[in-house]
Amino acid sequence: MRYFTWFALIAALGSLFWTALGQMASRWAVDPSYTHGFLVPLFSLYLLWHRRPMFLPSAPALGWGFVLIGLATGLMVTAAALFFQTLAHYSLPLFLAGVCLALGGWQKLKWAWPSLAFLFFMVPLPGPVADALGGPLQHVATVASTYVIQTVGVPAVAEGNVILLSTEPIGVAEACSGLRMLVLFVAIAAGFVLLVDRKPWEKLLLLASSIPIAIIANVTRITLTAMMYEWVSENAAQLVFHDLAGWLMMPLAIALLAAEATLLSSLVIENRPAAPVALGLGRNDPSPIVLPGVGRSAPPLRSPRPSPPRPR
Questions:
Q1: What is the pLDDT of residue 156?
Q2: What is the C-alpha separation between 264 and 242, in angstroms, rounded?
């Protein structure tokens, strides 16, 4: 009866978070920057299946579980009071972590935490955060693209967020800042590091490198557009910028991440102990020895036993 009461309480609280999930789904459907949100829960479920060997029996941790559930509920109430829905959206993974603890214990949370952490990628960025990131990314894209364009021999000057070419100017608009590419590619890189079997520092390095890789892909797109303006025509430049490059930049970023992972694999060599090499002493004493410095230390060599004298 007691477990049924707890289950009913969790189900009642879960109905509140179902509303938050519906709000996020509505945003995914209308905002092109977050259409990947529909795939995030599916990938989280795949992570649970991928880590199924870790699904081991464990006692429920009801106390800590309800602490997290209470904290998530408090965030939900605060979000409603402040009309700040993003706070309610971020409380959903925290609520699920509390449910996992309350019903399955710490071992179940150890199994499920990567999936729960990945759910944060389905939450759209708050408006102030998106604005704070979009401006610097827009400026970096303009300056870096101008430098690359000049390097390939095309005259270009950056004025604000506009690149002045010899033919006509190219405006790096807010939509071209690369924020959409950055959010999506960081999610892809996070999924990659959660699946591969690497050391923790390698995973952190791969995840951190997703930010400059996304910027490089966006700079490549703008540079190709400028080259099309100069060397072909405006129509060809528009085709590259809005259609072709938009589809190819994500595969380019994924290829760069894969190349980095391959490079790390070739640079990092694990130090595995070599197998001991056994040698015999001869017919009279076939007991083996182990070479020093290869495996365990070798026993002292024994002199061969003298043969008995022959009868005369």
A1: 86
A2: 34
